[in-house]
Automatic annotation (TrEMBL):
Residues 192-220, 296-306 have a biased composition (Acidic residues). It comes from Oreochromis aureus. The keyword Nucleus does not apply. Residues 182-243, 292-325 are annotated as: Disordered. The lineage of its organism: Eukaryota, Metazoa, Chordata, Craniata, Vertebrata. InterPro entries: CCDC74A/CCDC74B/CCDC92 (IPR040370), CCDC92/74_N (IPR039496). The keyword Kinase does not apply. Residues 40-88 form the CCDC92/74 N-terminal domain. PANTHER family: COILED-COIL DOMAIN CONTAINING 92B, COILED-COIL DOMAIN-CONTAINING 74A. Keywords: Coiled coil. This is CCDC92/74 N-terminal domain-containing protein.
Length: 325
């Protein structure tokens, strides 16, 4: 600053044209000298402040460096302590990799959950549709079952009425056949009539004995037999011996030969009444002329009537898809 002021003063002194009044120059020089002193003082104070600030800044930087060094040392000590306490501690890279894997797994599970929810909604829709179809099928089945049960009831009633009608007609037919047989027997020749009468009586007695052994068949077969006439003692003994011999032959025919000749104890014989021919068939065979032209049809009728006591399955003409009764 002083150098600049000196140059300015020299320039003024070197140019006399510009500095005509000397008094003004002296005044300016005095004011500039005073300003220069003030500026020097200000500059000195500023330099002192800058120096102080530099010292403070250096002290602060030194303290910060010391603090950073202390923190680094402390971090190193803590890391060494963690390594000593947890030797298998994962590194940061491994932790980051695990975090990434966990995030990917969560994303996959979220996608899977969305897909499973869609499948669950579809399965619920299918289940509701199946439930509706099952309820509809159940309703149709119950209606069909009700209809068939009603039809079965009607058919069973009709069958019962037909059975009653058939039984009545058969009873009347058998009564008429017995009356016709008795009339023809009384009007036939004497020797043939006696032989046929004897045979008929024997067969009637055998039939009565067989029917006495059967439980529940007496009521249905008593009306087919005519009352036997009185027999002499000699005839009864002969008939008894004949019946015994016939029964023995039937028993021998029923029992197999290997059972009789084998050393094992033979089993009891079954009921022979099941193998005996009923009286009405024998009477029909003995009196063939009594039959009319449609005898074959009547014989078939008798066979059907004889088997009426055995429960059989009757097909009432059930259509396709319906249960036969």
């Amino acid at each position: 600053m002083t150098d600049a002021l000196e140059r300015i003063s020299l320039q003024y002194h070197a140019n006399p044209k510009t500095n005509q009044p000397s008094t003004s120059v002296h005044r300016f020089c005095r004011g500039s000298a005073m300003d220069a002193g003030r500026l020097e003082q200000q500059v000195a104070s500023v330099e002192r402040g800058i120096t102080f600030l530099k010292q403070e800044h250096l002290a602060m930087l030194t303290g910060l460096q010391l603090e950073i060094t202390h923190l680094k040392r402390r971090c190193h000590e803590l890391s060494c302590e963690l390594d000593s306490r947890f030797p298998d501690r994962n590194t940061e890279a491994e932790l980051v990799a695990r975090c990434d894997a966990a995030e990917r797994l969560l994303q996959d599970q979220h996608c899977m959950l969305v897909a499973v929810r869609g499948e669950l909604r579809a399965s619920r829709a299918r289940a509701s549709a199946l439930g509706r179809s099952l309820r509809e099928e159940e309703r149709c089945f119950l209606e069909e079952l009700k209809r068939r049960s009603h039809k079965i009831t009607l058919l069973s009633r009709e069958l019962q009425r037909q059975n009653v009608t058939t039984t009545t007609l058969c009873h009347e037919l058998h009564t008429a056949r017995l009356k016709l047989f008795q009339q023809q027997q009384s009007s036939g020749s004497a020797p043939e009539g006696e032989e046929e009468e004897a045979r008929g009586k024997e067969e009637e007695e055998e039939e009565e004995e067989d029917e006495d052994d059967e439980d529940g068949e007496g009521e249905s077969t008593d009306w087919l037999l005519s009352p036997p006439p009185p027999v002499s003692p000699s005839q009864s003994e002969a008939r008894q011996r004949m019946r015994i011999s016939v029964r023995e032959e039937r028993v021998r025919a029923c029992v197999p030969q290997e059972r009789v000749t084998s050393p094992q104890q033979p089993h009891p014989m079954p009921d022979p009444a099941l193998f005996l021919v009923p009286l009405r068939y024998r009477l029909l065979r003995m009196h063939q002329p009594v039959r009319s032209q449609d005898g074959e049809g009547l014989e078939d009728e008798w066979e059907d009537i004889d088997d009426s006591r055995v429960p059989r399955r009757v097909d009432m003409g059930a259509g396709e898809g319906e249960t036969a009764l």
